[in-house]
Amino acid sequence: MRKVLGLFASGLLVLALTACGGGAQQSAAIPENKIVVGVTSGLHEEILEKVKEVAAKDGLEVELKAFSDFQMPNIALVEKEIDANSYQTIPFLESYKKEKNADLTQVGQTVLNPMGVYSNKIKSLDELKEGDKIGLPSDPTNSVRALLVFQSAGLIKLKDGVGDDATVLDIAENPKKLEFIELDAAQIAKQLDDLTAAAINTSYAIKNNLNPGKDAIFLEQKDSKHHNVIVVRTENKDDAAVQKLVKAYQSDEVKKFVEEHFEGSVIPVW
Question: How high is the pLDDT of residue 245?
């Protein structure tokens, strides 16, 4: 009987060790010579195409996967469908991590895509009339970013101390009694004709043939904290492929490409 119990205990030990081994395999490093990077379609995809060229010289193959909204690149990263993503600001990342309890880490700064206010009806914010409809993104991070842009432009004043948790309900002063309408960030540019003006993320502006440097009637200030970053799963932050990706992105070749191709509408921050 003791022999049988001993064998049974040994079997449990083997199963436990096997289970531990299986967990370790799930945390494997990204292959050193290839990395799959998620981006939102538009300017981030264009920049990563250049990064891909530079990385190839260092022996790193970069495979791109483009997404049409702001949520999927993080979901795909958490679910290990991609190895990294490059499209989001630090506040957006922190908000996602808190909401989803996601173990993600930023590993390098990239560019500032200044949010702009655009209009098909007016040429200046001074032309706004009482009750005009103003669009802004509906997701929390970009909504508060738009509100800060409106405040910087002198259109509104937010309640003291609301910080990064501000919503349209936190508008303390709205002299022109503007009507703020929250819309899906990817669709705002397509609905400009139904609005007097709207705050639009640079990636979606460019995708809809709007040049921030030329077409925006107001641009987010350069001291904005909403820089974009490269993000990976925390377990992979020190992997060789990740370091090569950051090095390629923060190269002089990519910086020159961004400055010339986007004509100052996208600003390198490294």
Answer: 98
